[in-house]
# Entry
Amino acid sequence: MTSFLSYPKTYQILTKIQNASAITFSTFTVVHVSQLLVANVGGVESANRWLILGRPFYQDAHLEGLVVTGAGLVHVAAGLGKWLIRRLYWPRSSTKRQNLTGYVLIPLAGLHYYLVRTLPQQQYGDSSFIDFGYVAWGLQNRPWFTYSLHIALILTGSYHVVAGISQLWNRQKSSKRRRIVQGGVIAGLCLGLTSSLFIIGRETKKIPLRLDFENMYRRISI
# Structure
């Protein structure tokens, strides 16, 4: 029993749990990121169509608790458990960029979820009909907050996901070529997602629920 609960053994178990939850959560990430990137090709109307089409997958009553909130919370809990073990067992170990971006993502992703999922549910009892017009209202009327939140989410999320995938599938020592490819993918993803954000903010002209959206954004006292 003592051997099973040793720090190194527990750390290995948490790593496996973290990797499994990351793979599960990545299914949602791929769908949601694709919905946003479509704006670069077909504009905000195409992005909204893809948003509505893909939403049943990750807002399903059963799947959401598994691939989004469930996998996300398990991933965070495992990561924090590993952080605690490192502080106790390896107190002089340095914090890697991969871990650092993960810690930063916790409040960013939590605030994003509160904005686009919790507030609409509080306002309407549902959020399944909300499209990118909701974010567009924020980009147009609360630009500092909305752009800062989402660009920070794009930058940290892109690095964390791409570096995490690279680390998961290629565990040997990082090569210069691998780092260059990884950096290129991260830069391209950041550029594409940020461009989509600006397109959504610029091209969205009609926002029928703008008064409701204003009321919802007011609930975030920033």
The two ends are 49 Å apart (CA to CA). The chain has a mean pLDDT of 89. Residues 44 and 203 are 7 Å apart (CA to CA). The helical segments are 7-37, 39-58, 64-89, 97-124, 133-141, 143-169, 176-203, 210-218.
